[in-house]
Amino acid sequence: MSDNAADQLVVRLADLPTRKPYRIDIRGDRNSCAAVAHTLDLLDLRKLSFHGTLKAKGKSAWGLEATLGATVVQACSVTLAPVTTRIDTDVQRLFTSDWQEPESGEEVEMPEDDTVEPLHAEIDLMAIVSESLGLALPDYPRAEGAELEISTFAAPDVTPMGDDDVKPFAGLADLKAKLENPDTK
User: Fold this and answer.
1) Which end of the chain is more exposed for a tag (fewer CB within 10 A), N or C?
2) What phi and psi values does residue 39 have, to the nearest 5 degrees?
3) CA-CA distance, 4 to 165, in Å (whole number)?
4) Is the distance from CB of 61 to CB of 127 less than 8 angstroms?
5) What is the maximum alpha-carbon separation in the chain?
6) Is residue 31 part of a domain?
7) Does residue 167 lie in a domain region?
8) How far is CA 43 from the centre of its chain?
9) For the chain, what is the domain count?
10) What is the pLDDT of residues 115-147, one digit of tens each?
11) Which pTM does this prediction carry?
């Protein structure tokens, strides 16, 4: 880690300089990688890094610009075999005191700018790392050559249903053809 982000995974904003950027240089150690892997239900997390700056944006906001890099191992969504993926993604956040927290129970629309967050006295950098990594993960990782096989099951003397049988309009083309040419079967 760099000199000014030596041991600070949670940054207290009152302690930061407002005239120059605060450098962030986090390299995941064994314990932090294991904690993030557990949180995100990963098989393994290697080479975690988070580099960037945190700087004041006026009197009531702080901006975070960083790059997240990680090598993750997830279970294949088909075979459960380990799948290794390299993730490199940019992370941006704007922490502002102008944030309006919606009232509970109220329906809320997704804002156009999803990088804006409420400004608190502290910023948990590892929470941002974990959230950003979770958003960047493949939803359905697949091992090379893994294919989903189709299995059909039915009781004896019953024809199993396929995907086409479940679709409500699957037989309309055949019905139309029969109605137009009643002589053909």
Assistant:
1) C
2) -60, -40
3) 64
4) no
5) 87
6) yes
7) no
8) 16
9) 1
10) 777 788 889 999 999 999 999 999 988 888 777
11) 0.71
